[in-house]
């Protein structure tokens, strides 16, 4: 995958990525800024076109409506229209995901309750705090009971209640054999939640191993140095 750079051509973001994830497993993605983590998640979510190679998600194309309805995605910046109310935004997303209208209001109410936002259901998105927005982002990612959940820096900006919400949602996902891909800069996120950890460097997967085999006392910077040295 490449991004245009005006008259200078394009910059290649992902190349040679070879990765397979089994159902019900939790994969962590780690790497320096610009290593391609967010781009890879967006490609899996069907939001970035793949120029070459083969990308199959849940047995189909990530850009297809059928696959996107089975995929939950939390971006790093949770970009929702500021003028919409939380409940309105969730209803719209639920309709796009193919949820039946008859039970949609109840599902929206349940989702807001799960992340502690019931009393803010009628609040406009633009008036929410950063922590509330991150919890709302988790609510929309889980709204349609997806089979695959993609989380980009899910703990960034979370408030205290949000950490508890995320832990509950991930525990439920594991109990239901939902597949999770979690990108994070924080060793604690990766050690606590992930079965395998993929280290990304310069748009490539440098290594995939259990987190406790990869993350030493020196933290992730030491992991990146070792991965570069062995590349």
Give structural attributes.
231 residues, alpha/beta, Rossmann fold, 6-stranded mixed β-sheet, two-stranded antiparallel ribbon, 8 strands
- Tell me, briefly, the overall form: globular
CATH topology value: Rossmann fold
CATH superfamily: P-loop containing nucleotide triphosphate hydrolases
Low-confidence stretches: 1-11
- Largest sheet data: 6 strands, mixed
Roughly how much helix do the residues carry, as a percent range?
25-40%
Provide mean pLDDT, rounded: 86
Number of helices: 9
> Can you write the helix and strand succession as a string?
EEEHHEHHHEHEHEEHH
Fold and architecture overview:
- With 231 residues, the chain is an alpha/beta fold.
- The chain has a single domain (2-230), classed as P-loop containing nucleotide triphosphate hydrolases (Rossmann fold), CATH 3.40.50.
- Helices cover 37% and strands 16% of the residues.
- The protein is built from nine helices and eight strands.
- The chain has helices spanning 37-44, 65-68, 86-96, 104-114, 130-142, 160-175, 187-193, 211-214, 220-230; strands at residues 2-4, 10-12, 26-30, 71-74, 148-152, 179-183, 196-201, 204-209.
- It has a six-stranded mixed β-sheet, sandwiched between helices. The chain has a two-stranded antiparallel ribbon with strand order 1-2.
- It is globular.
- 38% of the residues are buried.
């Amino acid at each position: 995958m490449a991004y245009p750079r005006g008259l200078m051509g394009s910059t290649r973001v992902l190349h040679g990525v070879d990765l397979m994830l089994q159902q019900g497993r939790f994969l962590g993605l780690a790497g320096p800024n610009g290593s391609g983590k967010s781009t890879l998640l967006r490609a899996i979510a069907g939001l970035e076109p793949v120029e070459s190679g083969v990308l199959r998600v849940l047995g189909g194309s990530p850009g297809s409506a059928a696959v996107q309805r089975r995929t939950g995605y939390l971006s790093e910046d949770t970009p929702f229209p500021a003028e919409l109310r939380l409940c309105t935004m969730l209803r719209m997303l639920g309709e796009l995901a193919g949820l039946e209208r008859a039970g949609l209001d109840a599902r929206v109410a349940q989702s807001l309750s799960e992340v502690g936002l019931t009393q803010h259901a009628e609040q406009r998105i633009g008036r929410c705090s950063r922590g509330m927005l991150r919890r709302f982002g988790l609510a929309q990612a889980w709204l349609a009971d997806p089979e695959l959940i993609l989380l980009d820096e899910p703990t960034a900006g979370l408030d205290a209640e949000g950490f508890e919400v995320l832990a509950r949602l991930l525990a439920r996902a594991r109990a239901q054999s939902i597949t999770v891909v979690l990108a994070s800069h924080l060793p604690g996120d990766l050690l606590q939640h992930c079965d395998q950890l993929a280290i990304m460097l310069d748009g490539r997967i440098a290594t995939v191993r259990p987190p406790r085999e990869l993350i030493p006392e020196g933290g992730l910077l030491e992991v990146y140095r070792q991965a570069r040295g062995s590349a």
